[in-house]
Amino acid sequence: MSEAYHPEAQARHLRCRCIRAILRLRTAGLNTGGGSIVTRTVTNFNGVFGVISNNASTVTHNTAVGNGHDGIDAIGYSTATHNTVNADGQDDIKASVSTVTNNTAGNNNGVGIRATAASTVLNNTVVDNAGVGLELGLGEAASAYANNVIGGGTEVSGGVQIGKNLCAGGLCP
Q1: Which of 15, 50, 123, 143 makes an SS bond possible with 67, Cβ 3.0 to 4.6 Å?
Q2: Those residues with Cβ within 8 angstroms of residue 63's Cβ, 6 or more apart along the chain or in another chain
């Protein structure tokens, strides 16, 4: 694995295929432009965000731990899958109009997975968050969720349950 330290990384909106990078910056870890693929990076203990991926990006197989704000932000029409996100200052994973699958998120100071505006949330493990486990969009742009394991605190806020989910040792209401 290579180590990347770049003081201006947060200022750049990179369109990249980022593979096997370790980022520990005083500000944001990795901020990509639209259409990026972010895979196998470690963005731990950055001052603000771990990974911010803009429209139509794929964020997969990453680790984001102990970042000052959010661990992973998948902004607009993106996919966040197979990530491990833990102990971030705010939300572990934040997404809108995106697909969030097969992630592990927990032990942060905010929401485990916040998926608004018609997102799909499937097969995640979300536990021990200070805020809600899953916070999902409502109304005409409701987010859908199924097959998640959610525990500790308030499990789910909003969204439409399209399959079974496990909340605090039993099926979610």
Answers
A1: 50
A2: 41, 42, 43, 44, 83, 84, 85
